[in-house]
Amino acid sequence: MQGRGRAVCMGTDIDTDVVIAGRYLRTKDHSIWVAHVFEDLDPSLASRLNGTVIVAGKNFGCGSSREQAAIAIREAGVIAVIAPSFGRIFFRNAINIGLPLIECDITCSEGIPVTFDLTSGWVETGGMKYPSRPLSVRMQEILAAGGLVNYWRTHG
Amino acid sequence: MAGEYVDRKVDHAYVHDGTGVLTLEAWKNMGARGISDTAHLHVFFDHIVPANNSTTATLQHELRDFACRSFFRFSDIGGGICHQLMSEGVVLPNEIVIGADSHSCTLGAFGAFATGVGATDMAAIWMTGETWFRVPESTGIHLAGNLVGAAEAKDLALSYVSKLGMDGASYQALEFVGEGAATIPMDDRLTLCNLAVETGAKTGMFYADEMTLHYLAAAGYAAQVQEPEPCSYKQELDFDLSDIVPVIAVPPRVDTVKPVSDLAGLPVDQVFVGTCTNGRYSDLARFARIVKGRKVVVRTIVVPASRVVLQKAINTGVLMDLVEAGCSIGTPGCGPCLGSHMGVISDGEVCLSTANRNFRNRMGVGGEIYLSSVSTAAASALEGEITEPEVS
After folding, report:
1. Model confidence at B95: pLDDT above 80
2. Is A91 helix (H, G, I), strand (E, B) or coil?
3. pTM summary value
4. Which of A147, A152, B159, B267 is the most exposed place for a label (fewest CB within 10 A)?
């Protein structure tokens, strides 16, 4: 699975409260999460995420298990999130809803293209090619199905 | 073996009113093909209780209706916090316990494997009764000696988070071991395991010992002591409990931890005592002991972790002591911790909280959350500023 987008740079330890605040959680209307994604980090971000690849520091998505965080990022149009490590619940959530995550430590330059290949495990940006840590076989299957809901629709 | 991927049957799986709504949606989208008859399934209403508006009420109505029709164990508003209810004579050693909440690691205090997942993972567990895991490496936290002075388990918890950092045990299990571990009461073990996720860990755990068996016997269960198996830890920390002093986590990070003495005098607008970290009876009793016969000088919200906790606080007079001291008492549940319905703080305000997260804007936009022990919260509530607790 390959993908490409413009880089949006973020810092370390981005917690899921910052991705989508508790005050916006009590709804099933996904558009509310998309409208307020990353609001407490930068209120202008939500409208600029379509077609981007988030390149963050370590431990992206730590904290609360709220799956709305992964949904908001995906539905805002983010192609993938690249970080050296992720909060483990966010990691599962993102793959489960079909948002590719890539464990890779790269230098981020705002706005420049980032290309990745999940299957062969590399990320390319700014003229540099970095190896990325491959997803487990199960996670690759779930992601290939488009998420765990589709995975279970087609399995068992 | 650590690093291996395994599929395991789940003994207990639980959601709350927050994550349960998305779990139900995902379960329906998977085809609503049935409910596992092997796992014990629970639904607890604790996050926004009672419902604060029509939208929340509608979402809760739908989940309540489904839980009751599907014969899940259901606890409505006022029952208490999911992790607390699971600790009141439900979880046993060696069980696999999965909650759709990040603080599900709390239940590792019983020698269970307990961890959190998101809604879609939980929906698959409802359907199949099992899930996959990557077997974690372990971080050994060796404890020696006893807590002394005004130091509490919460101070130890914040101290280990500070030492490991917010990702210092990513994807790992924390094991609390050593002769000091045996002396730690169950309530404090729950507090220590509760904070494990703040280091990125998958779970925190104690091995079941005489203390565990005694606690479970009171709930009517006979369990066996677990013998720690020899293992190699990925990393090890050593704490002499007598070195632990009262500390505070400074916003917006749980791992920015300073001695209370460094922050003494900082004005506080609100004190909050409760949550899955420090809302148990022993916490309320400790708070009451300090404020009894005096008045808190800032608004102080006390939320018992469960109905059982509340009942005990009523029966022992602890509740009256709190009310007479000027505390506001909330419905058992998560209270203001997540900042979505009550006890929200304003821009520029400071809340001193016994909870586990002080992330930016969590309890209200522009507000700051400092995290402390119950004794530090009580001493500070009486002074209106961060105050070192006295040795009792």
Report:
1. yes
2. helix
3. 0.97
4. B267
Chain A nearest-CA residue for B15: A65
Give the integer Cα–Cα distance in Å for B81 and B178. Answer: 30
DSSP labels for A26-80? S-S-HHHHHHHTTTTT-TTSGGG-TTEEEE--SSBTBS---THHHHHHHHTT--E
Nearest to B99 by CA among B117, B72, B84, B73: B117
Contact check, Cβ <8 Å, A40/B102: no
Is the confidence at residue B1, as pLDDT, over 90? no
* Rounded average pLDDT per 10-residue block, chain A, 156 residues: 96 97 94 97 97 98 97 98 97 98 96 95 96 93 96 85
Rounded Cα gap, residues B198 and B201, in angstroms: 7
Distance from CA of A5 to the nearest CA of B (A): 27
Q: What is the predicted pLDDT for the residue at B229?
A: 81
B372 Cβ neighbours under 8 A, 6+ residues apart: B154, B158, B246, B247, B248, B249, B260, B352, B353, B354, B380, B386
Q: What is the pLDDT of residue A154?
A: 86
ipTM: 0.96
Distance CA A100, CA A108 (A): 18
Q: Measure CB to CB from residue A59 to each of B101, B121, B167 and give the nearest one.
A: B167
Question: How large a percentage of chain B has pLDDT more than 70?
Answer: 100
> Total domain count for chain A?
1
Q: Do domains B5-134 and B248-383 have the same CATH topology?
A: yes
Segment B166-194 mean pLDDT: 97
B contacts of A70 (beta carbons < 8 Å): 118
Q: ω into residue B136 within 30 of 0, thus cis?
A: no
In the A/B pair of chains, how many CB contacts fall below 8 A?
Answer: 121
The residue in chain B having the minimum alpha-carbon distance to the alpha carbon of residue A98 is B120
Note the pLDDT of residue B228.
Answer: 85
Nearest to B188 by CA among B243, B146, B247: B146
CATH homologous superfamily for the domain B138-243: Aconitase, Domain 2 (3.40.1060.10)
pLDDT tens readout for residues B256-290: 999 999 999 999 999 999 999 999 999 999 999 99
B5-134 folds as Aconitase; domain 3 (3.30.499)
Contact A136, B135 (CB under 8 A): no
Q: Check CB contact under 8 Å for B362 and A67.
A: no
Q: What tens digit of pLDDT does each residue of B354-380 get? A: 999 999 999 999 999 999 999 999 999
* Angle value at C-alpha A124, between A106 and A138, nearest 5 degrees: 80
Domain B248-383 in CATH 3.30.499.10: yes
Contacts with A58 (C-beta within 8 Å, 6 or more apart), sequence order: A12, A13, A83, A84, A85, B167
